[in-house]
Amino acid sequence: MAKYVMFFSVTGDALARFIEKPEDRRPPVQRAAEAAGGTLDAYYWMFGQYDGLAICDLPNSAAAAALALAVTSSGIFKHFETHELIAADDLVGILQKAQTLRPDYRPPG
């Protein structure tokens, strides 16, 4: 499975609803990840550019896209972005593959 981080910011209306009716959002996010064939690894709220993030293990990018589309269709997000995470242990192999591909690429000009 691949690991994805999803950064999100919610609308002011959604924040107002959270204040009116506080709830732990991990269970619904976990259920959505499981429905996409994966699991929720971490779920955090934070200060700064984004309101929070979720880290999920998902079968592939199609599952990640489907999950992102399902949750963003709710309309509560003003910003939502998904990034596939690359494990540090995988970097050497990726760099070695890039090394073999480099001779086949010609830069512009």
What is the topological layout?
Layout: E1 2-10, H1 12-20, H2 26-35, E2 39-45, E3 52-58, H3 61-72, E4 77-85, H4 88-101
Antiparallel strand pairs: 1-3, 1-4, 2-3
Commentary on this structure:
The protein is of the alpha+beta class and 109 residues long. Helices cover 41% and strands 29% of the residues. It has a single domain (2-104), classed as Dimeric alpha+beta barrel (Alpha-Beta Plaits, 2-Layer Sandwich), CATH 3.30.70. Strands 2-3-1-4 form a four-stranded antiparallel sheet. A hairpin with a 6-residue loop joins strand 2 and strand 3 (52-58). The longest helix is centred in the last third of the chain and has 14 residues, at 88-101.
Net shape: elongated
How many β-strand runs? 4
**Biggest sheet statistics:** 4 strands, antiparallel
The total tally of domains equals 1
CATH T-level topology: Alpha-Beta Plaits
Estimate the helix proportion, in percent: 40-55%
Give the structural class: alpha+beta
Instruction: State the low-pLDDT regions, or none.
Output: none
- The H-level CATH homologous superfamily, spelled out, is Dimeric alpha+beta barrel
Strand order in space, largest sheet: 2-3-1-4
Please tell me the CATH architecture by its name: 2-Layer Sandwich
Whole-Å distance between the termini?
A: 39 Å
Order of helices and strands: EHHEEHEH
How many separate helices?
4
Beta-strand content bin: 25-35%
The CATH class is Alpha Beta
Q: Gyration radius, to the nearest Å?
A: 18 Å
